[in-house]
Amino acid sequence: MTTRRQFLKQMGLASAGLAVGNVSSAFARPMTSKEWAGVKADKVKIAYIGIGNQGAFDIEQFEKTGLVEVVALCDVDLEGKHVQKVLNKYPKAKRFHDFREMFEKAGSEFDAVLAAVPDHIHFPICMMALNEGKHIYIEKPMCRTFQEAELMMENARRHPNLATQVGNQGHSEANYFQFKAWQEAGIIKDVTAVTAHMNNSRRWHKLDPKMHKMPEGQPLPKGMDWDTWLGAQQWHDYNDLYHQGEWRCWYDFGMGALGDWGAHILDTVHEFLHLGLPYEVTLLHQEGHNDFFYPMTSTILFRFGPRDGMPPVDITWYDGINNQPPLPKGYGRSEYNADIPATNQGETPRAQLNPGKIIYTRDLIFKGGSHGSTLSIIPEEKAREMQSKLPEVPKSPSNHYENFLRACQGLEKTRSPFEINGVLSQVFCLGVIAQRLNAQLFFDPRMKCFTNNAFANALLTGMPPRKGWEEFYRL
């Protein structure tokens, strides 16, 4: 069977010959699905950065596709117990502590990269991958600052032949295709408000909001490359409260509940309603506000103006165990999505109100969960009335991991590329700034700046990168 690489080479030679007699024939037409079915695609040669916990889960999902050849493994803590499973599974893969060294010494041997690492190091890895000509799958949230998202989107535009994908898996599951089909059929229209909620216990709930400085330094774990772990961030001495997912707690390293779960709850709402950037972001309520880590509870209002013939939309975000939103009449039970992947924080507990959203339109109310959960119309009697009007929802042709790999092969387009997810990530960055400043902020979406708070504008960029990391912030 002809491989994809051989096929494209033959197509290139054929079109080059035709160009002499007919210039228009030089441009090969897109292949049909039947034509692609006759082409055996090469496996994607891939490198993995961050191979424990969520990284190990992602690696397992890539392995299930049968579409990858693992070339290199990279982790700052190669002697940690959490990475041994992956190391043992791929004994022939080259091993690195520092992703920069991996690109330098093994970059010619792989075509794509998966990075499942702390939020603060997403940006330099993605920028280096694109600059080195590699397809990149990055875990959500895409980045940690508004400026980082700007640079990542621009760099992706400069490399249109490279696939980018952000790891909000629901964007390739039933949630995505149902929302799209229902909107196109006019079932979801004239949305005016969305409530998003994530009320499970979080790692920082065990910390003391009265702390007056960051944690004291501790001895490094054996073999730990802490300097690379910090990346472009200003120096912090190592502490266990930063490692193994604990980084999610801290403004310097993570994006809190909003960045972690917002990407799984608000992704389709943001994309299909063309929300773009808000004009107001206000912290309506908080408990346990401090300078270092995320509040124990927070309620954030995002206000979006009218666009593309659609009315203004208010999104209200609720996090914190006892900070649950009001529920509409006929809400019913809070459905739990059993497909949500486990993390090293343990199984996601079934809360009184499981993570999800409520969508209010002028005519209908919808409720939905997280990740790939589908929407339902409430109350039940209204759902029964609408049943005959609901369109058929197509099944996903590929899950999120396979979608990325097929995009690397030229067979599909990624569903959550930087150009789409980047603006959603910026929305979360604005929300985190409101949390951090405990403020009402007005934002100009065209000029991309706050109009009422100079400190907030400084946080759009954040602290300057550490010496030696400046190059990643230059296009």
Structure description:
The protein is an alpha/beta fold and 475 residues long. The protein has helices spanning 4-21, 33-37, 54-65, 84-89, 99-106, 122-131, 146-157, 174-184, 226-230, 256-265, 267-272, 380-386, 400-408, 418-437, 454-461; strands at 44-49, 68-74, 94-96, 112-115, 135-138, 164-166, 191-198, 280-287, 297-304, 313-319, 356-361, 365-368, 376-378, 440-444, 449-450. Strand 9 (297-304) and strand 10 form a beta hairpin.
Distance between the termini: 41 Å
Main sheet specs: 9 strands, mixed
Task: List SSEs in N-to-C order.
Answer: HHEHEHEHEHEHEHEHHHEEEEEEHHHEEH
Estimated helix fraction: 25-40%
List keywords for this structure.
475 residues, alpha/beta, nine-stranded mixed beta sheet, six-stranded parallel beta sheet, globular
Mind sketching the topology for me?
Elements: H1 4-21, H2 33-37, E1 44-49, H3 54-65, E2 68-74, H4 84-89, E3 94-96, H5 99-106, E4 112-115, H6 122-131, E5 135-138, H7 146-157, E6 164-166, H8 174-184, E7 191-198, H9 226-230, H10 256-265, H11 267-272, E8 280-287, E9 297-304, E10 313-319, E11 356-361, E12 365-368, E13 376-378, H12 380-386, H13 400-408, H14 418-437, E14 440-444, E15 449-450, H15 454-461
Summarize the structure.
This protein is an alpha/beta fold and 475 residues long. 31% of the residues lie in helices and 16% in strands. Helix 6 (122-131) runs parallel beside helix 7 (146-157), helix 7 (146-157) packs antiparallel against helix 14 and helix 14 packs across helix 15 (454-461).
